[in-house]
Design brief:
alpha+beta; IS200/IS605 family transposase; two-stranded antiparallel sheet; Transposase_17_sf; 4 helices; four-stranded antiparallel beta sheet; Transposase_17
Length: 132
Amino acid sequence: MCRGRTVVCTLHAHLVFTPKYRRGPFPDEILRPCEEVMRAVCADFEAELSELNGERDHVHLLGHYPPKVALSRLVGSLKGVSARRLRQEFPDHIRKYLWGEHFWSPSYFAAPCGGAPPAAVKEYIENQKRPG
């Protein structure tokens, strides 16, 4: 939960990134450095990467971020910085799976996490009406 002078919030997102062409460059020896890079990027945004895991052709992230951060900007930095750093650290391995300047697919999946389902929130708000 984040607290500021004018806000108390808890924003969590489940993100899924796939490499370009959905080719599988993610054995464990690359997934671990990818997680380290993404944790550092999140820290720069005052966000927190709670979990990262994946398979050879995609990665899942669970993150907590402050309301001042646009999720699309965070995603852009996560993908851009990780692509650059992984290409620098593992050039031969990455070149076997991906070619050209692309690492990640331009698309991604994002879903909010935590909190109550919308129906429960609606019911809660309806029950806040004053009698009379």
